[in-house]
Amino acid sequence: MKVGLFVTCLVDLMRPRIGFAAIELLRQGGCEVVVPKTQTCCGQPGYNSGDRASALALARKLWREFADCEYVVVPSGSCAGMIRAHYPELLKDLPEEERTPLKALAERTYELTDFLVNVAHFTPKSKISIKSISYHDSCAGLRELGIKQQPRALLAQVEGVTLKEMNECEQCCGFGGTFAIKFGEISAHIAERKCENIAAADVEAVVLGDLGCMLNIEGRLRRRGDTQTQVLHVAEVLAGKTSGGMY
Questions:
Q1: Boundaries of domain holding 187
Q2: Which of 90, 101, 190, 233 lies at a 20 to 30 A Cα distance from 215?
Q3: pLDDT of 182
């Protein structure tokens, strides 16, 4: 099947190895993977700020770039949630002839682990040196797309790894896009609580599916003096790319 990888802005700019790990996993799952070179943003920042015009322009652009793909896969619950959960509302005032193909694009868009489990029926082949991990449920993936058991089912198949659930694993890390900028003190308090739960879990790595949350959690861990706990994207773990560091 032909799958288009929507890389996302943050992955492209901050941790591109997540994108390469996602490509490797999709290929292992038997997919033909295409990565349109002109792709940019899904439109979420504009949409969340009330700029529907720019969000709609980006939605149209994304459709043109991925129109010939059977599926669109996104290594981010946040961006996948924008496309799958919020595009239908964004498109509601368009003429039917334009709304229909854009809505179809939203319906065939999946977060990475959801696609691997429920469409590709993928079995991980990786083996990593990390022995204990905990999983943080990022807000958008969990609440907009129901991403909960999918990453855990995949991680349970990684040889030699034990998943230890942290307290309040479903609670926000404090990032929330511009929330972390507008309400810095509140965000820092939420992040601190998340890091306390990670520390109490006593694991070598915390794993999750959104780079924004990863940056927020890793930054707080390092400011607390924790230089040991790795913060990894689920794609990195499943593909065996766990050497640490941002790039």
A1: 132-238
A2: 90
A3: 86
